[in-house]
Specification:
195 residues; 4 strands; elongated
Length: 195
């Protein structure tokens, strides 16, 4: 079990006034660095999920979204400490496997897809789709970060797998919140074709 990694005695420190931010290993990076953008987008995703949780959800789905928010802090902690795991918190395969089991369980009751889905239907579903797209952006940033020469071997590959599976889960959860797909808003190709 990992001990809390943060102690906040003051909200502002003024150390970032020069345009840099501190990582978990004590080093500093510009606030616009790809690593900071990646874990910042993970934090944004958690906020979107928090908005989804304000809607009327089933108890199981609400609990799972809370677990995901906790996971996302773990993802952020992983990204905030570059390099080898050592004694630092790292996303492991068990995180991703749990998401896969949830996806498989939800998929059993979903109506088959006959078209792509437009975000909408219920408000909760729309928030979950926004979460899905935010998650995909985080995934893109992490994969781009991993390609940087100076970041080789400093990005945990399981973070990418977790985010990839999480976006799939949020898509499925959005369908669950639309009456297991019955209220999905389907894409109609060429519907605004101007004929």
């Amino acid at each position: 079990m990992f001990a809390p990694m943060v102690r906040l005695n003051r909200i502002y420190t003024k150390t970032g006034d020069d345009g840099t931010t501190g990582l978990g290993d004590g080093s500093r990076l510009p606030k616009h660095h790809l690593r900071v953008a990646a874990y910042g987008t993970v934090d944004e995703l958690s906020a979107v999920i928090g908005l989804a949780r304000t809607e009327e959800l089933g108890a199981e789905l609400g609990d799972r979204l809370r677990q995901i928010q906790n996971d996302l802090f773990d993802v952020g902690a992983d990204l905030c400490v570059p390099g080898e795991a050592g004694d630092k918190l790292r996303i492991r395969e068990a995180y991703t496997k749990r998401l896969e089991a949830w996806i498989d369980g939800y998929n059993e009751d979903l109506q088959p897809l006959t078209s792509f889905i437009l975000p909408g239907g219920s408000k909760a579903s729309a928030w979950l789709h926004l979460g899905r797209t935010t998650c995909r952006r985080a995934e893109r940033l992490v994969t781009e970060l991993a390609t940087l020469e100076e970041e080789q071997g400093r990005v945990n590959g399981e973070v990418v797998r977790y985010l990839n599976r999480l976006s799939d889960l949020l898509f499925v959860m959005g369908r669950v919140e639309n009456q297991n797909g019955a209220d999905d808003v389907l894409w109609k190709p060429g519907a605004g074709g101007g004929e």
